[in-house]
């Protein structure tokens, strides 16, 4: 292909959307021909997990309740033992990106079909990407077979999300949309998804934060995050995700909080070099995107700076140098000096 040809690919997936959609999970696994379901769920999804256990009855093969952030291979191996010992023939994940990541890791090793039931806005259920850690090193692979074939978006599962996770996870989703807008391989489809995702998130997030138990707001936020997850799957992410990966991997930082605090800084860095993205985000925010996103990010009652996450200031330069040495595609060239300044600001 020539320099100006962009390839648009979509993954085959079946997506159920709506309040109560989780109750269709047993039927969905039956549709996959599964008779022995492995359930992967975090403690935060206990109620939904219990409900599914009752509904599956004897079709539940086993249950694994300890997914860990960044998908450590040792945890995957523990869960694989369970797959083998119980002859599981499908995996259902209920939880955030950590639970969904474990299901992906199991599926890629065994070929088991997956049903993903997300309870955050991270978007992993939409992507063919798996990040895993072993001996402190994070590796990422991309393969269409990694993407869950069935996804269930039930907003009722997000009603009890704490305000801090709601805010930071929504900004994590917003970051996917923002980077899709300035992606070198953006298409009309990704622009449409990203614009609607950003509009939905920015419009409804204040409403959800004011009324966390309101179902219509939660539903719109979840659907906007779904669009953002599709952006993550369809376009190549830039400096924001590269910084999140580099910092998160080096200093073992909480995923959503890190994304949330970085986003305004990367917006300020990139928007002058990304006029199309800037124009769309100005339209969506009705003002200055940096100020609007910055105000949301600073509203977090947890850590809003790298310093508060325990990142040592002396470590920033090395991260900037690594990023500058092998940059992800980005509208503005991230040289080490400029990225160090960005990180100092975020610190
Ligand atoms: P997470 O899954 O680690 O969850 C964070 C915490 O929130 C956990 O303690 C969890 O139990 C809790 N939680 C989740 N949902 C909740 C709810 N509804 N109510 C209350 N508590 C809830 O966090 P995450 O941000 O969803 O996912 C982060 C992980 O996912 C990282 O490992 C990241 O690398 C990965 N990820 C991967 C992709 C991909 O495409 N491969 C995309 C996004 C994230």
TrEMBL record:
GO terms for molecular function: alcohol dehydrogenase (NAD+) activity; maleylacetate reductase activity; metal ion binding. Residues 167-347 form the Fe-containing alcohol dehydrogenase-like C-terminal domain. Coiled coil: none annotated. Keywords: NAD, Oxidoreductase. Pfam families: ADH_Fe_C, Fe-ADH. InterPro entries: ADH_Fe/GldA, ADH_Fe_C, Alcohol_dehydrogenase_Fe, MAR. Residues 12-155 form the Alcohol dehydrogenase iron-type/glycerol dehydrogenase GldA domain. Belongs to the iron-containing alcohol dehydrogenase family. PANTHER family: ALCOHOL DEHYDROGENASE, ALCOHOL DEHYDROGENASE 4. This is Alcohol dehydrogenase. It comes from Streptomyces yokosukanensis. The lineage of its organism: Bacteria, Bacillati, Actinomycetota, Actinomycetes, Kitasatosporales.
């Amino acid at each position: 292909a020539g320099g100006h040809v962009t390839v648009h690919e979509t993954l085959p997936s079946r997506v159920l959307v709506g309040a109560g959609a989780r109750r269709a999970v047993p039927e969905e696994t039956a549709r996959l021909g599964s008779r022995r379901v492995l359930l992967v769920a975090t403690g935060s999804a206990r109620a939904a997990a219990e409900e599914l256990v009752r509904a599956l009855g004897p079709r539940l093969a086993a249950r694994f309740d300890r997914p860990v952030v960044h998908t450590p291979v040792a945890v995957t191996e523990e869960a694989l033992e369970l797959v083998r010992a119980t002859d599981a023939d499908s995996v259902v994940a209920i939880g955030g990106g950590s639970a969904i990541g474990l299901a992906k890791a199991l599926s890629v090793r065994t070929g088991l079909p997956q049903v993903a039931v997300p309870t955050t806005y991270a978007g992993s259920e939409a992507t063919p990407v798996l990040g895993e850690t072993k001996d402190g090193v994070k590796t990422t692979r991309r393969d269409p077979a990694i993407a869950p074939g069935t996804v269930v978006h039930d907003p009722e599962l997000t009603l009890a999300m704490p305000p801090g996770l709601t805010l930071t996870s929504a900004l994590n989703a917003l970051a996917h949309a923002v980077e899709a807008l300035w992606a070198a391989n953006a298409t009309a489809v990704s622009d449409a998804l990203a614009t609607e995702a950003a509009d939905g998130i920015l419009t409804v997030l204040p409403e959800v934060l004011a009324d966390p138990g309101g179902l219509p707001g939660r539903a719109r936020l979840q659907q906007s995050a779904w669009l953002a997850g599709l952006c993550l799957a369809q376009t190549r992410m830039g400096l924001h995700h590269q910084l999140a990966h580099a910092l998160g991997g080096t200093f073992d930082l909480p995923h959503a909080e890190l994304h949330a605090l970085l986003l305004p800084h990367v917006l300020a860095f990139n928007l002058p070099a990304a006029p199309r993205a800037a124009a769309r985000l100005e339209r969506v925010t009705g003002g200055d995107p940096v100020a609007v996103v910055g105000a949301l990010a600073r509203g977090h009652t947890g850590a809003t700076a790298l310093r508060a996450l325990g990142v040592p200031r002396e470590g920033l330069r090395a991260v900037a140098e690594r990023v500058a040495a092998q940059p992800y595609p980005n509208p503005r060239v991230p040289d080490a000096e400029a990225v160090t300044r960005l990180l100092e600001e975020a610190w």
